[in-house]
């Protein structure tokens, strides 16, 4: 038997992708997923550590060593069961979670070699597995619990945090109703993340499983307007979970920001994703189409907006960012994909003025040249203006992707809710309970814009506490 220390470590199994020149003009999924053979080869790279640090890096504490071990044994059913014990949306997480900063970032193999492709393996297991029953698909239980008529829970918002709460509690026999402001459930999974990164059929499958389990979705119900927390308690709900996200866009305050052709990333992506403008003419949704597009910001949302604009027939798409590419907060994979597809990066530039024509339509933007100064509170070097150095960029569409903040509708309708100094809901980090007894909150409305998996982690903590109290 060969000495393990002398054994050559195989490189990470590449993920098949659409070619950049082809995918830049369609909304088909970019990453095509592993085949069975590729998944088994990658799974065999796992060291099966005695102390698997990867699990510590997972916000929902998936038994990563366990599910990969089952996959090595060619036990797809067992691998899926292990994942679903703590993760109710594995097909989603395998696609959009920043594994490089979480589980894969803690992988022991990654200290000297490429880490195991944990996210890709999770996606493979979720996609390949066909559940034997709806109950098994959406909960961590083998059988469905009988629904109890004397206990019910309401979720306001239908994003990843609320979906996690609903699946966990419904599997334990609690009646769960989910109230969503838009006309389709899924939250940011539907309106925010583009089809080429997260196909809507994947989200629909997860939601259909919840419906089969007994979860009821009520669409076009706006928390704080058409339904309030007090209304829900008066209707007999025993607990309420608030998972409304933080979807109100931030703007720059730059002159000309009100010109025709200047959009927030939230509005632009919602029109294209939720309205299915990417699937014209099957869905005849109006969507503004720019020929020369600039995107302000460099996070994942900015990358999504830039790559979407490219697919909506823009002739040029440029990301304008105040720092360098090294400081961009987006996932490295998303930046690489964007550049491969033809998105340009204009770094060390900040917008100072939007120019319009005589009809009030955007025609150009002036940017201030910058350099990096000393690190700021975020640990990144702060951009400093270079006096007198500006440049004008031709553009007929600008998408602002510089962050979000809480929508005040529900918060103003519930003054008893204690807020943090940043305006988010204050919640106990262990139980997710708010200042109102039996009202829980999690996801972006508590943390600010974060990841899908962190929202799911909060949903799981809240659901566990609710189940403890009601069952």
User: Roughly how many Å is the radius of gyration?
Assistant: 23 Å
Shape category? globular
Record field, number of beta strands: 15
Number of helix segments?
A: 19
- CATH fold-level assignment of the largest domain: FAD/NAD(P)-binding domain
Unreliable spans are 1-6
Name of the CATH superfamily of the largest domain? FAD/NAD(P)-binding domain
Would you identify the CATH architecture of the largest domain? 3-Layer(bba) Sandwich
Going across the biggest sheet, name each strand in turn. Answer: 3-2-1-4-15
* Broad CATH class of the largest domain: Alpha Beta
N-C termini distance: 53 Å
Largest sheet: 5 strands, parallel
Strand percentage, roughly? 15-25%
What does this protein look like?
By secondary structure, the chain is of the alpha/beta class. Helices cover 33% and strands 19% of the residues. It has three domains: 31-130, Fumarate Reductase Iron-sulfur Protein, Chain B, domain 2, CATH 1.10.1060.10; 141-247 and 406-470, 3-Layer(bba) Sandwich (FAD/NAD(P)-binding domain), CATH 3.50.50.60; 249-404, FAD/NAD(P)-binding domain. The strands form four sheets. The protein has a five-stranded parallel sheet with strand order 3-2-1-4-15. Strands 6-13-7-8-9 form a five-stranded parallel sheet. Helix 2 (36-43) crosses helix 4, helix 14 (265-273) crosses helix 15 and helix 15 (300-311) packs parallel to helix 16. The chain starts with 19 loop residues before the first helix and ends with a helix. 46% of the residues are buried.
């Amino acid at each position: 038997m060969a000495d393990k220390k002398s054994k050559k470590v195989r490189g990470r199994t590449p993920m098949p992708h659409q070619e950049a020149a082809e995918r830049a003009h369609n909304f088909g999924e970019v990453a095509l997923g592993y085949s069975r053979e590729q998944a088994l080869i990658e799974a065999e790279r796992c060291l099966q550590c005695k102390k698997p640090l990867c699990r510590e890096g997972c916000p929902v504490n998936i038994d990563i060593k366990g599910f990969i071990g089952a996959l090595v044994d060619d036990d797809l059913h067992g691998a899926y069961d292990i994942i679903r014990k703590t993760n109710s949306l594995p097909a989603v997480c395998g696609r959009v979670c920043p594994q490089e900063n979480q589980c894969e970032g803690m992988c022991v193999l990654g200290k000297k070699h490429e880490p195991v492709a944990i996210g890709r393996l999770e996606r493979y297991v979720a996609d390949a597995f066909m559940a034997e029953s709806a109950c098994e698909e959406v909960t961590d239980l083998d059988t469905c619990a009988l629904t109890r008529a004397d206990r019910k829970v309401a979720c306001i918002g239908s994003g990843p945090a609320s979906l996690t709460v609903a699946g966990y509690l419904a599997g334990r026999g609690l009646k769960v109703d989910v109230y969503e402001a838009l006309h389709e459930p899924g939250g940011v999974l539907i309106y925010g993340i583009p089809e080429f990164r997260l196909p809507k059929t994947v989200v629909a499958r997860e939601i259909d499983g919840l419906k089969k389990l007994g979860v009821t979705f009520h669409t076009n119900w706006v928390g704080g307007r058409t339904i309030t927390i007090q209304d829900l308690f008066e209707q007999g709900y025993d607990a309420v979970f608030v998972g409304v996200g933080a979807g109100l866009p931030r703007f720059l305050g730059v002159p000309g920001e009100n010109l025709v052709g200047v959009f927030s990333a939230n509005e632009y992506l919602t029109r294209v994703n939720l309205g299915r403008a990417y699937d014209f003419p099957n869905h005849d949704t109006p969507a503004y189409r720019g020929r020369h597009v600039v995107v302000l910001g460099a996070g994942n949302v900015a990358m999504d907006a830039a790559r979407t604009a490219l697919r909506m027939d823009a002739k040029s798409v440029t990301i304008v960012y105040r720092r360098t590419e090294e400081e961009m907060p987006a996932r490295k994979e998303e930046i690489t994909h964007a550049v491969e597809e033809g998105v340009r990066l204009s770094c060390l530039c900040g917008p100072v003025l939007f120019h319009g024509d005589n009809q009030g339509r955007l025609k150009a933007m002036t940017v201030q040249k910058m350099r990096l100064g000393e690190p700021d509170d975020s640990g990144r070097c702060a951009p400093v203006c270079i006096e007198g150095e500006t440049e004008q960029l031709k553009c007929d569409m600008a998408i602002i992707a510089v962050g979000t903040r809480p929508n005040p509708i529900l918060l103003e309708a519930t003054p008893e809710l204690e807020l943090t100094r940043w305006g988010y809901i204050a919640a106990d980090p262990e139980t997710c309970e708010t200042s109102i007894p039996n009202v829980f909150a999690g996801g972006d409305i508590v943390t600010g814009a974060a990841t899908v998996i962190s929202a799911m982690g909060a949903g799981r903590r809240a659901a566990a506490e609710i189940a403890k109290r009601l069952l």
